[in-house]
Amino acid sequence: TLRIGSDASRLLAGVVFVLWPTFTIVIGSTSAAALPGLLVPWAVLPLARALQGRGSIATGCARSGIAIALMGGVNAVSTICALVAPGLYLLTHTRGRQRVKVCLLWATAVAAATAWWAVPLLLQGRYSFNFLPFVEQANTTTKTMSADAFLRGTGNWTAYLDLGGPWLSAGWQMVANPAAIAASAVAAAVGLAGLARRDLPDQLWLRLCVGLAAVIALAGYAGALGGPLHGLVQSELNGTLAPFRNVSKLEPVAALALVLGIAHVCAGASRRALPAPRGYRPLAAGIVLAPVIALCLAGLALPYLTGQILQPGSFSSVPRYWYQAAGFLAAHSPNQTALVVPGDSHGLYLWGEPIDEPLEPLATSPWVERSLVPYGGAGSQVFLDTAETAVESGQRVPGLAAYLARAGVRYVVVRNDLSPNQLGYTPPQTVTATLTLSGFSRVASFGPTVTGDQTEPGAVHQVQAYLPRYPAVEVFQAASAAQRPSSPVVALPLSSTELVSGGPDSLLQLSGQGLLGDQAAVIAGCLEHLDGRVPRQVRLD
Question: Which pLDDT does position 272 carry in this prediction?
């Protein structure tokens, strides 16, 4: 459509684009992170065809919107960054009233394509806990974003993360293996050579894509030849611009432009660079370039060729017993919360490493766990920290049942299939001991038996007779929890309300000492948000 390159060079450029390190680094671990960038060409294509007169403008914008909708809603910033390429295409290929008309139509299509996740995201930003200050910081995300890393598509900081072993096996190959580094460097160099040629079609658009993405992505880099204002940029990325601190999300925009430069260079290689008789130049070009191209493609595809593209904990399906556990909670506690223990930051299980919780897509009833990112707020995080510390004690915890029931927790879901090969692992016998001694009893169990020392994925079916055995998932309930109201909202008398000078964690000790009973309690600090007034009915949860 853009009339760049030849049939063969376009096919080569397409293969290089798919193998670009930006996508290879994450596609085997978090494929949704690669999806917006991979769909960038499909967001541009209908716009280009429409502006060439091959269809109406409205249809082209609508088709571009469909491609944007298919980018998914996992990460808003990845999608916003992907919109840079089609946005610049419209600005460089329209003028005057046509520009206003086309941009309005395309903006409408983008709004319609993203509303299904943008509106909930705005609501979350308005009412939920701001966890951005507690995750990766700008000095981390920009530290690996040098100019060569940006052009090679290897600026993603997670590719360099080593926690006793590479966090991303494919990413580590792309940033540490000399063959992969050389291949991506050659690809980037050839792409830049193509963008520098005067006979390149759409050169203004392509150069703007690389230039604008580079200026934004490299502004916070503090290394050699780094941006002079990197300190100010990092400060903003840790403040107002915190959602955009992962600047590597701009790399797909540059990747698209660079591979089109590759298509342009390779199409004319036989005509411009190889001295041979006129009829034999394509053959000579093939003989010279084929080995170089094959080596570059092999270097870019190294994680695929060596079996490192998927994470070690890859899995084909979530075990059936997690479906059964979700079904039990939906049937017996559709409105009351289930607490999942032990807490786990990254979802590493014996059967695989989903880097997420199985209940996330399976459960229809409310549940909560102590995870890596606090979503509910400071109060709920303190509550979960306190509950998690109690569960991991392996001892009797007075008042634990009342403490959980006060927050609306009816069931405690114990997952015994977590991988013990992770930091902070809590063995099943510790959790079971705490719950049993604290007045809980098991009401349901699912899955095969497991032991605490199984270390390999798939070992869930192996049992060593001399070790305690536990079902993969257990559901516990305290006797007092069954007496709690099933409704998510209740009214309690103001006359028996207690004012607690402390945090949510202090309610565990007060419950253990029998000082609260079934009385409603309000934390003293919460009164600041009520203008000093005590509401008519107050309850912590």
Answer: 55
Give the separation between CA 72 and CA 77, rounded to whole angstroms: 11
Contact 379, 448 (CB under 8 A): no
CA distances from 406 to 59, 137, 391 (A): 56, 36, 17
Q: Tokens at residue 12, please?
A: 């080569």
> pLDDT, tens digit, for every residue of 413-470?
999 999 887 777 888 999 999 999 999 999 999 998 876 554 444 444 443 344 468 8
Give the pLDDT of residue 532: 47
35 token code pair: 């999806």
Positive or negative torsion for Cα 358, 361, 364, 368: positive
Question: Exposed, middle or buried by CB within 10 Å (0-12, 13-18, 19+), for 478?
Answer: buried
- Could you give the angle at the alpha carbon of 264 between the alpha carbons of 262 and 268, nearest 5°? 115
Tokens representing residue 122 in the block:
């705005």
Sorted by sequence, the CB contacts under 8 Å of residue 272 that are 6+ apart come out as none
According to DSSP, the β-strands at 498-500 and 367-369 are unpaired
Give the Cα separation of 158 and 316 in Å (integer): 24
151 within 8 A of 254, measured Cβ to Cβ: yes
CA separation for the pair 483, 473 (Å, rounded): 24
Of the chain, the end-to-end C-alpha distance in Å amounts to: 59
Per-residue 3-state assignment (H helix, E strand, C coil) for 343-398:
CCCCCCECCECCCCCCHHHHCCCCEEECCCCCCCCHHHHHHHHHHHHHHCCCCCCC
Contact 365, 330 (CB under 8 A): yes
Using CB atoms within 10 Å of the CB of residue 423, give its burial: 0 to 12 exposed, 13 to 18 middle, 19+ buried. exposed
Q: What is the pLDDT of residues 152-177, one digit of tens each?
A: 999 999 999 987 788 899 999 999 99
How many residues does the structure list for the chain?
Answer: 541
Residue 64 CA: distances (Å) to CA of 205, 258, 324: 17, 21, 41
Dist CA 333 CA 458 (whole Å): 31
Using alpha carbons, select from 180, 280, 523, 494 the residue that is nearest to residue 382.
523
Q: Could you tell me which of 127, 349, 157, 357 has the C-alpha nearest to residue 245?
A: 157
Q: Tokens in use for 251?
A: 């790399």
Cα separation, 258 vs 281, in Å, equals 25
Q: Pick the closest to residue 462 from 347, 350, 382, 309 (CA basis).
A: 350
Contacts for 148 with CB less than 8 Å, ≥ 6 apart: 185, 188
Q: Where are the beta strands (DSSP E) in 196-354?
A: 337-341
> Which residues does the chain have with pLDDT short of 50?
454-467, 482, 529-533, 535-541
Angle at the Cα of 169 (from 164 to 175), degrees rounded to 5? 95
